[in-house]
Write a sequence for this structure.
């Protein structure tokens, strides 16, 4: 069995495919969020050190993971776009950025709320927190660059270049707690095993998968808008809009 | 706005963004990549003298002492090799405990006592229910009583 993947690199065909997939990913995200929140707040036990306040991790860690992962996916699409000059790649990169910025903000925000009672400070300039803040500036900077350049194809390339340069920050964020003395604790999930109760881990993983599905659903909705806007002069878009 | 004005604005924004990123990175490299110094590093003279810096380590068990005013505390930070006595006047974070991690910011006096202006608690990456922590503690105690013969 072979699927003609190239067919879906054409915006017109991808528009239809994404539209059909959105309800599935959206539904999966909603149900997993309900399960994940239930596990996080009703099933998972109280922590021996931090009491109930540790439950911030069920939002904080999935958001922080997504903030880094979405950036890498966005940079990969940017690289594909720059290398092969494919229109849809740049559109995907543009569609990913706002969700990535949102998750970065959520990670920083929930981290501050966690830091005040646990560490005694809303914010410290340690390597982990600073590099995550730089990630937020990168997202915002890339979006500003895209928004400021009128010619979409030129804007695509400028933003993609910035996205690629900024990708160096992602491994810095991830390994910062290992490379330097930071106030932020190390990773609970390591290649050598996890230092976390299994039920707590389950809640966190379910929330992370829910965040994945949410991201896919939202990005597909957004990329469909971008496709319509970019291809508004073509016959198929006129067709779609007349049908709607 | 004319298109070349927009172009100029875009370039300006990009340059400003990159400048902020670079400045933050450099700032982090200069003073904050090492968020704190361990007592051994301080003993080796690696900590900056004459200005405030942070020390980090474990609060030595049995070292925490409160003065009569209820605000001033004395404790000892250790990395199991070297120790530094610390005085601090203020409210300690909830997670501040003997035997647990802490990061204190302040200055080192000539008498070797570190006067802290801020004390933070550094918690670790272990998460478990209290019963599991208790069981783990019991197991460690049992092991300690068995091993040295």
């Amino acid at each position: 069995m072979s699927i003609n993947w190239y067919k879906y690199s054409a915006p017109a065909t991808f528009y239809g495919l994404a539209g059909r997939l959105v309800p599935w990913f959206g539904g999966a995200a909603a149900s997993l969020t309900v399960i994940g929140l239930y596990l996080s707040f009703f099933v998972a036990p109280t922590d021996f050190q931090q009491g109930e306040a540790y439950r911030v991790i069920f939002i904080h860690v999935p958001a922080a993971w997504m903030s880094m992962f979405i950036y890498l996916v966005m940079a990969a699409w940017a690289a594909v776009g720059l290398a092969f000059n494919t229109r849809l790649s740049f559109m995907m990169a543009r569609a990913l950025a706002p969700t990535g910025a949102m998750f970065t903000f959520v990670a920083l925000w929930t981290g501050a709320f966690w830091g005040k009672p646990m560490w005694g400070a809303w914010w410290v300039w340690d390597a982990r927190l600073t590099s995550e803040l730089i990630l937020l500036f990168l997202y915002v900077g890339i979006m500003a660059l895209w928004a400021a350049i009128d010619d979409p194809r030129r804007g695509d390339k400028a933003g993609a270049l910035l996205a690629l340069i900024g990708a160096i920050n992602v491994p810095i964020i991830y390994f910062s707690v290992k490379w330097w003395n930071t106030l932020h604790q190390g990773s609970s999930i390591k290649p050598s095993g996890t230092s976390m109760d299994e039920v707590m881990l389950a809640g966190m993983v379910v929330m992370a998968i829910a965040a994945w599905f949410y991201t896919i659903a939202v990005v597909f909705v957004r990329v469909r808008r971008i496709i319509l806007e970019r291809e508004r002069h073509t016959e198929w878009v006129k067709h779609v809009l007349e049908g709607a | 706005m004319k298109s070349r004005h927009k172009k100029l604005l875009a370039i300006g924004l990009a340059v400003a963004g990159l400048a902020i990123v670079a400045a933050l990175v450099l700032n982090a490299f200069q003073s904050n990549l090492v968020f704190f110094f361990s007592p051994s590093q301080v003993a080796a003279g690696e900590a900056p003298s004459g200005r405030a810096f942070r020390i980090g380590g474990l609060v030595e068990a049995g070292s925490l002492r409160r003065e009569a005013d209820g605000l001033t505390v004395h404790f000892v930070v250790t990395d199991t090799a070297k120790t530094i006595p610390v005085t601090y006047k203020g409210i300690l974070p909830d997670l501040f405990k003997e035997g647990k991690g802490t990061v204190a910011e302040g200055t080192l006096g000539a008498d070797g006592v570190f006067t802290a202006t801020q004390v933070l608690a550094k918690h670790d990456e272990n998460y478990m229910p209290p019963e599991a922590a208790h069981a783990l503690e019991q197991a460690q105690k049992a092991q300690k009583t068995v091993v040295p013969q």
Remarks:
- The first strand of chain A starts at residue 189 and ends at 190.
